[in-house]
Amino acid sequence: MKQAACILFLVMLAGGLNVSAQKKTIAQRVDSVLRLMTLEEKVGQMNQYNGDWEATGPITKDGDKQNQIRRGMLGSMLNVTGVEHTRQLQQMAMQSRLKIPLLFGQDIIHGYRTTFPIPLAEAASWDIETIRQSARVAGKEAAAAGVHWTFAPMVDIARDPRWGRVMEGAGEDPYLGSLIAAARVKGFQGRHLGDTDAVMACAKHFAAYGAAIGGRDYNSVDMSLRSLWEYYLPPFKAALDAGAATFMNSFNDLNGIPATANSYLLRGVLKGKWKFKGFVVSDWGSVGEMINHGYVKDNYEAARAAAIAGCDMDMESRSYIKNLVTLVKVGKVPLTVVDEAVRRILTKKFEMGLFDDPFRYCNDARAAKEWDNPANLATAKKMAEKSIVLLKNAGGLLPLSRTTKTIALIGPFIKAVRDNLGFWSYEWPDDSSRIVTTWAGVSKKVGDGTTLLYARGCGVTDSSRAGFAGALAAAQNADVVVMQVGEARDMSGEAKSRSSIRLPAVQEDLIKAIQATGKPIVVMINAGRPLIFNWVADNVGAILYTWWLGTTAGDAIADVLFGDYNPSGHLPMSFPRAEGQIPVYYNHFSTGRPAKNDSDLYYVSAYTDLPNDPKFPFGFGLSYTNFSYSDIRLSSAVLRPDQSITATVTVTNTGKMDGEETVQLYIRDLVGSVVRPVRELKGFQQVSLRRGEKKTVSFTIKPDDLRFYNDKLEYKFEPGDFRLYIGGNSRDVREAAFLLKAD
Ligand code: GLC
Q1: What does the alpha-carbon distance between residue 729 and residue 619 come to, in Å, rounded to a whole number?
Q2: What are the tens digits of pLDDT across the range 328-376?
Q3: Which structural domains are found in the chain, ordered by start?
Q4: Are strands 720-727 and 627-634 parallel, antiparallel or unpaired?
Q5: Most informative mutation of 80, 81, 151, 248 for ligand 1 (most atoms within 8 A of CB)
Q6: DSSP secondary structure string, 220-239?
Q7: Cα separations (Å) of 526 from 118, 129, 383, 577?
Q8: Ligand 1 center from residue 283 Cα (angstroms)
């Protein structure tokens, strides 16, 4: 009894119940707890389980997890949400000897109660502030549901759309990807980590997961360290600089060593060079999966390798909880390794205020307030509108007139509900009334004088053409046809890599049949990735890329269709013409035999059966109005190491509508100690222009903007000739030249 009282006093002291404890730094408080912990309890903090949760069912199917929680053998759980459920589990943790609170993690990737456009769609907005707001709403809603930690943002650069997880990221470019990574971290973590409307962010998947060979999920990654630093690490560094509380290592092996136990990545780069103070959680089971990799022979060795390499928390593989105590006792893992990992984990628990009040995120009133907050839906709709990309508008078919007499809405996604949510989203019983379908959005938008006809026409991949007749009939009776085709929400995402990313044949056939009626057609494409749809791109007059836009999808689509929002999206990934062209990306090298044009095939780097350039280039996006670029000027043709130059261009809205243009700045370093890309995005500005208005847009270029990793991995700029390009995408640009002097 006496001992228990003593422990309780020490815990209260550490836990800050003692007045003077409030003055202790978090580091001191962590040390106070660490000193009380047994080795078993320390390893328990490094252990994370999934929460076998069923919406109204018991907390766990087997009693074991509950007992482990009560014995302090669990540091965190994932996939447990809701004030009631997290409170129950936390109450169990408070029955443990030291009452160390649990952390609840969850994949809040693009929304919780309010689903936002998928991250790749958000990236197409190039609107960094709205992307931050999107993550802010997600963080608020998650924190209100008892969640402490989201496993987001996913910041993997990806150049291969066969990889289903491109939908979760920000596309192919490290500059855009870095800005978006930082914005999402700041959105999730809010003003201050520990505020009850904020959740810890988790930069994932560290690292280079998006470069899986063949775009096949979980496949190996093999690249030079130079490429790793130049293209794949920058968004992670941006996330860390934005204050990301945690990182998640990736599944893949990198140059032969699984990221889970890759000490170059975890200790060398992240905790060493970058001085990361948070903690690293493994991906689901990735510690144990190193057996499959052939990197270790059993879970005992897996635990040793991962812990020593710097993986602090084992998600779901049970390697740590079953082996680390022994590994420390026999001297195969130094106790300092465990202490460091636990110190990192406890520090976050203190920063989240969980030691002061383990139930501070379990607040029914706050949960109710965030549950159907109209402001959240308004932000989602703004984000959705900005995510839509206009790929074609030949003949100015768009925007449609509200007084159009009859509109036929045809295709498998016109009335789809949950397919608007994308892969990483939450389903709620009232989804059918909350999610705005295209049909619902358009119905609200048009007046009484407009008749809407509907035909599904075909399935998503089912080859049946039974619905064609009905679709044709609807088209025949309409003045204009709006079609919505593409991928279902489970066709992109984790473990959804595909060797063919073509628009399903039955859908293309339906479009061809409708096209043959001669009616004007708008085709909208729902997808989680770039798809291949060459015939549609070449033959249909108006095309919108509508991704998966979330809860407010139909409203955003209707605003764009009828011109209440002039589309402003720009592609964050290159769209290939064929799978055989992959990887195709804008910041490629010139090679020794660059093709001058599509017909130049004489011993050059080209395909004999396909042009080199993508169907739609990185940065591409049209508007209902037109923007012209002129008068590109540099403040000087010479840039010295201690100076900067200013590039200016005049952008004119030459069309009939007000609109927003994303003015993009690219550079090319003509000669380097390693070859340099033909384009590198180095800046962009979003400018709103009323019809007829012109603005001068300026960019400042400093030598630091021209740095790259040389073959010694030194991050330097090199004197020489540069080209500078400004335009509305990576292909159609105005050019200027400058010389970077050595001194
Ligand atoms: C998944 C994903 C990861 C996610 C984790 C928890 O396998 O790879 O992104 O955060 O497991 O659900």
Answers
A1: 4
A2: 999 999 999 999 999 999 999 999 999 999 999 999 999 999 998 999 9
A3: 43-106+251-361 (3.20.20.300), 388-568 (3.40.50.1700), 627-740 (2.60.40.10)
A4: unpaired
A5: 151
A6: -B---HHHIIIIISHHHHHH
A7: 11, 24, 16, 18
A8: 6
